[in-house]
Structure formats: C-alpha cells, structure tokens
Amino acid sequence: MVVREAVFVDEQKVALENEFDEEDPRCWHWVLYAPGESESEGMQPVGTIRLVPFPQQGEEPRAGGVYFGGELVNLEELGGPTTTTTDHQDEEPHLTLGRLAVLPAYRGRGFARLLISAALEFAQEHPTLFNVSQPSRDLTWKGLVCCHAQVGAMEMWARNGFQVDESLGRWWEEGMEHVGMYKRCEIAR
C-alpha cells in the first residue's frame, strides 16, 4: 500500500481516506519489487495493481459524474437519480483492474505492463474463482475485464489491449478525468 499512497495520495493529491476503500479486502493485489537505489536498501515495492471481483460495489460511474470517496457529488447537475443503465455490470459479469501505480523513478521500464499481465494471467488461469452463484442468472465470468482509466493513461491501457467504451462517456474521480475501457480475455475452461 506504500506505493499507492506515494502515487495517488502524495503525487496525485487524492485524499488518503478516499484511496483505500471497501473493495480492498476482497480484491487480489499484486506488488512488484525492484532493487532499491542503494545496495543496502534491498528489494523495494515499486508498483502495484488490484483485481476487483464481480460484482463490484456501487454502481458504474455516470457520464459527467464527479466522484469523491466513491460518492457522486453532482447528482442534481446530472438530473437526479437514474433507473436505466448501459453499463456492463447488468450485461455480463466482469472483473475490474484498478489502482495501478508505479513509483515515478521506475516508470518507463514496462512495469505497468508486467503488473497488468500478471493480474490477467491469474484471472485467465483461475476463471471459476470469479463465478457468482445466482440461480436466476448465468453469472459465469467469460473473460470480460474493465478498467476505469485516467484519461492520461488511456494509451498505456490501449497498448495492453483495452478499448474505450464510448457509451460510458467520461467522468471525474478524485479530480481526475476517467473513461471506461474493456478487454476480452481468453480463459482456461
């Protein structure tokens, strides 16, 4: 969690109480270690990512929404609550990759790609871990993975096979503009 705090709280100015949420205890987390700046430091955590299982807490972000601490703060501006949704959560179970962070001194070395690959490989090799038992619906995970990408990181996610879902629009989380991106993974059966 030291990497997330350094990147999201210290660098991107996300409030500490908003960085860690109710999803964290039920997620899978990966931490990437690399040699420290001096030999005496040994291996140091330099990157991290989490995989959120289905169903995710809360609702999918709304286009134009402004969120702080996971709460929509401009509901009136958006015309109030809605009962319709075009999100993938209602269509098909999906996993969500998030909280991808690499310390500034270690960026540009392919570490984000390594973290994304590790999480996706785990999901692909263990697909039944993500199936939800609900007799009225088929909630078998079929390989759909989402990320809520900061607009500045869209190209990096695209290089890893994710595509923007334009139907979701754009929204703001903790002061940063985001888009929904999806990727379909091949899974072991």
UniProtKB/TrEMBL annotation:
Q: Which one of the record's GO molecular function terms can you name? A: acyltransferase activity, transferring groups other than amino-acyl groups
InterPro entries in UniProt: Acyl_CoA_acyltransferase (IPR016181), GNAT_dom (IPR000182)
Top-rank taxon of the source lineage equals: Eukaryota
PROSITE patterns according to UniProt: GNAT
Pfam family for this entry, one: Acetyltransf_1
SUPFAM superfamilies associated with the record: Acyl-CoA N-acyltransferases (Nat)
Any idea where the N-acetyltransferase domain is? 1-186
Q: Where are the transmembrane segments?
A: none
The record, for Gene3D superfamilies, names:
3.40.630.30
Q: What protein name applies here? A: Acyl-CoA N-acyltransferase
Annotated source species = Schizothecium vesticola
